[in-house]
Design goal:
Strand content of chain A: 5-15%
CATH class of the largest domain in chain A: Alpha Beta
Radius of gyration of chain A: 23 Å
Structural class of chain B: alpha/beta
Number of domains of chain A: 2
CATH architecture of the largest domain in chain A: 3-Layer(aba) Sandwich
Order of helices and strands of chain A: HHEEEEHEHEHEHHHHHHHHEHEEEHHE
Strand order of the largest sheet of chain A: 1-2-3-5-4-6-7-8-9-12
Radius of gyration of chain B: 25 Å
Shape of chain B: globular
Oligomer: heterodimer
CATH architecture of the largest domain in chain B: 3-Layer(aba) Sandwich
Distance between the termini of chain A: 37 Å
Low-confidence stretches of chain A: 1-33
InterPro entries (chain B): Leu-bd, Peripla_BP_I
Number of domains of chain B: 2
Distance between the termini of chain B: 81 Å
Number of strands of chain B: 14
CATH class of the largest domain in chain B: Alpha Beta
Shape of chain A: globular
Strand content of chain B: 5-15%
CATH superfamily of the largest domain in chain B: Response regulator
Helix content of chain A: 40-55%
Pfam family, one (chain B): Peripla_BP_6
CATH topology of the largest domain in chain B: Rossmann fold
Low-confidence stretches of chain B: 1-31
Helix content of chain B: 25-40%
Keywords (chain B): Signal
CATH topology of the largest domain in chain A: Rossmann fold
Number of strands of chain A: 12
Mean pLDDT of chain B: 91
Largest sheet of chain A: 10 strands, mixed
Number of helices of chain A: 16
Amino acid sequence: MKNTFVKKGLVGLVSTALVAAFAVATPSAAQAADLTCTKASTKVETCTGTDANGAKFEIRMPSNFNGTLYVYSHGIRNNVNLPAIPVIAPAGELINYAPEVAPTEIVATALLKQGYALAGSGVSTQGWSLEEGVDGALQVLQAAKDKYSKVSKVVAWGNSLGGLTAQAFAEQYSGAVDAVLPMCLADSAQSEITMAGDFLWGMKTFFNPAIKGFGYSAGTAGYYEMLGDLQAVLTTLLALKTAIATNPSAPAWPSTSTAGAITAIPVRSAVLLLGLISGISTQSKTYDASSGPAGASETTFSVVLSPALAVLENGAEAAALAVLANYDMERRAGGIVYDNSKTNYTTRLGDDAQVYAASLSGGTYTAGMLQYLAYSPRVTASAEAVAKLNSMYQLQGKIEVPTITLAAAADHITPGGAVTHLINQYNASISAGTAKSGKLLNIWNKPADTYSTFDASGAVTPAKWPNGVGHCQYTTTQVLTVAKLAATAAKTGKLPSSATAKAAIKNDANLFIDPNFLPPLLKFRQ
Amino acid sequence: MIRNTRTKRASLASALIAAGAMVLSTVPAQAAETTGVTATTIKLGISSPKTGSAGLVYGKLPGAMKAYFDYINDNGGVNGRKITLVARDDKYTPTLAATQTTNLVLNDKVFALVGALGTATHSKAYTAAALSKNNVPDLFVNTGFSGFANKAKYPTAFMVLPSYAMEAKIMAKFIKDNPTLAPQASFLIAQDDEFGIDGVGGFKSAGHTFTAPPTLYPQGGLSAALAEGALTKLSVVPGKPILVLFGTTDSTATILKAAEKLSLTTKFTFIAGSVGGDANTLLALGVKSTTIDGILAASFFPDAKDSTDEYVKQFSAINTKYNKGVTFDNIVLQGMNSAMLTVQALRAAGKNLTRTGLMSAIDAKGSTFASAGLVPLNYSATSRVGYNGYYFGQLNAKGELKPFGGKVSLYTTDSTSGAVTASTYVRKSIPKNGIPTN
């Protein structure tokens, strides 16, 4: 097997993923005293303001307004200023409080042209700001309605944590909105931190015990512990990347590992195991777990190497997010919120032990790694902190207005299982008589059957983001398609029929509708 | 600026709530019982390796099935319907198998799956494509992993191959009853996953104790160096030790070539499992015919080179006409046999074909279907087990599997602790011209 197969694909493994996760922020400006509106030559009036909680918001109203307003909730943002950190924040970052009115400016422009108004809050606090996000959405909606009496229909939408915010907003204030469009829906704080935390704990346990991971100290000391963890995570990931690139068949463990005898196992198998037990996708930007370079190594690459490399590529973002999100949640909740004190990772692995047996280097090695995890020190959460975390609104599936989800099963930050949970909650609510049937439509995003590319020498060639993998990596057309479906549903009060919805996506090979398609729940809920 | 705090939310929310009756839309269509069936056609699907290293071994499978279906179509089809087979290439890769199986169900809208191949691949595909929720019949899965007979977990699946556990138990019985083999030391080299573990469990269940713990390797992970090391270590064992090879054909080839390199081909009595003992593939992978000569192997089919067998004869004729240019071998035989079972199942389900009806028909009548298999089929209302037995044969230098001792001695058993018993089962004759009339 040629080492060059993986080298090129590993270049930039960490950098692009991490930088994408944490956008560079602009320092917040002084609060506006009142709504300030300006009308540009584009015939769009833009109003900005600051709500009662100090959140900045923005409203854009086109001159050809058709009566429907989209209220957008943005995804999670870093809740701490960062100094310059290679890869993660090369130029340093300040907390970003800027409002967003749509997933991208291209989408915003397109919707405005069609006569839709847009609004969004920057939210008063960043991090896992579900409650503040719901508050921000509510208040920007009020401001828009106060300012523009022609607003007759409202679509709440959002990405990632913003998707959860939009859904929570609609459930808590039924009637405030006419349709909901959660995209790349996040699951609850505990579900998400369990996924990211399991991977981070696994990195600490297998590869680098210097990673603190959990239980950050108060104040400045904790801040520096968090920064130290980011550095340790990066160092460890780079060591793994180098080891696999040097010898894909039997890559060595990082020198920081203290895992003893199990380091005889190819470290790529340990990386894959961590991905499988935490629920991180085995398909990533570069690696599809389905193809290999033409020739004798094709099957070996696709079966043995590709899933592990995908987890490593995805895990780079997941691990850094775990550090930052966990630090934020611990401060927010006042103690440790991640808990694996009773987790049975053998059960967690389940049938994946069989499916990925070749990539895990066989049943004997898999059992050895699981045994090591079983006897490694665990993390116990603070009951009070968890209770506080869970006091935030939990989705009930109390869906009363047309709701359309857009999700990718292979999303490595917010897996499609979050939608499965919503579906389960919705069905339970219908059974309990607290929700009406026929209000939830799920549109799924999938990658091409194969998308990894290889050059003539068999080396993986880096590609731009393939649609259907990655976090919220939807095309403009896809977002506009589902946005239009949601706007129509808001007007009619009904979901599009199955035939209408399928017709809307028929030209997009990466979207599909199947009422029976249910991606696995996040591990916390299994 | 909005100055009120959260206390204003309640009144705000009330103000925003607009009254209005909601008109319910229809729920998206549920699994259709007759998807893939028209008045004149039945669409079936298979996900299996057509290319890649596994494609070298199993690539002929879908073509063989299609050839048999084409033959049936030219002879009137099934209840007036022609069968089409959509074959997708999964390269023996679990993720791609899940993708392709989903494509078969959602895009190709097949009525049923038939002949899906591989344990890791199909167990992932079964869940990913929601075969259970979609109620898609999953016929004659080509793997010996006994788990697929678990009706609670795989409610639409029907096994066809005997399980690896059955095979191991019968191997153990064969060794025990053979006066030449029984006194010899015995060793196992097996794939370290459900395949090998099923086998290890089978030997244990049968009470066979190997002389040393098994040598286990991950799928695709048996290197020449590992094989040579294992054989060198065992070469000092006195006598003619038994070496049971419980892996895929490429692994068997690696071990046999290692034996050639070390001049140890006559040192051991090799027993190859049914999966790894296909002589044509071994020869294609570069194993010398003299090495193959004498290897013991288990099978439940007649040998594909046995032109005296009526099934082989008929399938071979169909292959010549409908699968031009493809050499008839054990894989082609297996594909055509599964296709013939499928035709009988479709016929048994009747003209008003539904997915549930098809599965019920196999439960009720599948054990009576005509088949090339020399051992019984075990379908019933409570069993999704296909064949449940083996006989032992010996490969010759031409790659032919000849019954050990000159006659076929059948054994049957189950995948758990049941006894291994000699069987007097006599299969049904092939339907006239190979066209079922059940």
